[in-house]
Design a protein that fits this description.
The protein is an all-alpha fold. The chain is built from 15 helices and no strands. It has two domains: 84 residues, Tetratricopeptide repeat domain (Serine Threonine Protein Phosphatase 5, Tetratricopeptide repeat, Alpha Horseshoe), CATH 1.25.40.10; 133 residues, Tetratricopeptide repeat domain (Serine Threonine Protein Phosphatase 5, Tetratricopeptide repeat), CATH 1.25.40.10. Helices cover 74% and strands 0% of the residues.
C-alpha cells in the first residue's frame, strides 16, 4: 500500500521553497538590470537660449552711424533708438536720428528730433542745418532761412549754411541771391564742387552763358566724373545750338547718374533752376 501523500503540511513547504527561489532570482537579476540602466546615454535638455549681450554704447553708435552713411535708413533708425535708450541726453544721436527720419520721409518727426538736439546742445550748428533741411522739405522757406542765418551769424563762412541758403533763395525765385550764396559757399570751401555747379546753373538762369559755360568746363576738367557739371553743360550747349558736343557730354552724364533724365528730380531734389531744366528737357525729347 502506498503511503498517503502529504497534504496540508506539504503546500507551506512548497510555498516557502518557491519564495526562496524567487528571492534568489531577484538577487541574481537586480545587478544586471542596474548595470543595463547605467550604460544608457544620458539625455540632457539644451540650456535655455540667452539673448546676446548688448553692445557697448560706442560700438552701437558706430553701427548706427555706418548704417546712416551707407543709406540703410531702415536699419539705422532702430539702432539710433537703442543708442538713445542708453544715452537719452546725447544730442548728436538725436540729430542723426532726425536725419534718418527725414530720409525715410517723416519731416515733422525729423524737426522734432532736431529740436530735442538743440535743447541738449544749444550752441551746436548741426541741428540748425539739419532742421533747416527738413523745413525745406516741407516748403517752410522762412523757417529754413532763419536756421541758416542763425548759423551764419556765428560763422559767416559756414559753407553748408551758405549753400542751403542759396537753395532757399532759388526756391523763392531769387536767382541773383542764390548765385551769390553759391559763390560764397564755393569760396568758403574750395573743393565744394556742387556749390560751384549750382552757381554756374544760376548764372545760366540769369542769361550769363559765358560765365556759366566757363565754370562748368572748369569743373569738368577738374572732376571728369562729376555728372552735375556734365548735365548742366549739356543743357547749355544745346541752348547754344552745339548739338554734337552736347550729346557727347550727355553720354557721360547719363552713364554716371541716370537721375538727370528725371525733370521732377532735377526740380525738387537737385533744385536746378527752371531755364536749365527746360533746356535739358528739350534736348532729351529732340535727341531721342
Amino acid at each position: 500500500m502506498k503511503a498517503p501523500v502529504p497534504g496540508g503540511w506539504g503546500r507551506p513547504w512548497l510555498a516557502a521553497a518557491l519564495a526562496l527561489v524567487c528571492a534568489l532570482a531577484l538577487l541574481l537579476t537586480t545587478p544586471a538590470t542596474v548595470q543595463a540602466e547605467a550604460w544608457r546615454p544620458a539625455i540632457t535638455s539644451p540650456p535655455p537660449s540667452k539673448a546676446p549681450p548688448p553692445l557697448p554704447l560706442p560700438q552701437l553708435f558706430d553701427q548706427a552711424l555706418t548704417a546712416s552713411r551707407d543709406g540703410r535708413f531702415g536699419d539705422a533708425l532702430p539702432l539710433w533708438d537703442r543708442v538713445l535708450e542708453l544715452a537719452p541726453e546725447d544730442a548728436s544721436a538725436w540729430s542723426n536720428r532726425g536725419n534718418v527720419l527725414l530720409a525715410l520721409g517723416d519731416a515733422e518727426a525729423a524737426i522734432a528730433a532736431q529740436d530735442r538736439a538743440m535743447q541738449l546742445d544749444p550752441v551746436n550748428a548741426d541741428p540748425h542745418l539739419n532742421r533747416g533741411t527738413a523745413e525745406e522739405a516741407l516748403g517752410r522757406w522762412d523757417a529754413a532761412a532763419a536756421d541758416y542765418h542763425w548759423v551764419l551769424e556765428r560763422d559767416p563762412a559756414d559753407a553748408s549754411a551758405l549753400y542751403n541758403l542759396g537753395n532757399v533763395a532759388g526756391s523763392l525765385g531769387d536767382w541773383a541771391a542764390a548765385r551769390d550764396c553759391f559763390e560764397q559757399a564755393a569760396l568758403a570751401r574750395p573743393g565744394f564742387a556742387m556749390a560751384r555747379s549750382s552757381a554756374a546753373l544760376a548764372a545760366f538762369q540769369q542769361g550769363d552763358l559765358p560765365a556759366a559755360e566757363q565754370q562748368l568746363r572748369n569743373l569738368i576738367r577738374r572732376y571728369p566724373l562729376f555728372a552735375d557739371a556734365r548735365a548742366g553743360l549739356t543743357a547749355l550747349l544745346w541752348s547754344k545750338g552745339a548739338r554734337g558736343e552736347a550729346e557727347s557730354h550727355w553720354a557721360a552724364a547719363s552713364g554716371l547718374d541716370p537721375r538727370y533724365r528725371q525733370g521732377e528730380w532735377l526740380q525738387q531734389i537737385r533744385r536746378w533752376p527752371p531755364v536749365p531744366i527746360q533746356a535739358l528737357d528739350q534736348f532729351l525729347h529732340l535727341a531721342s
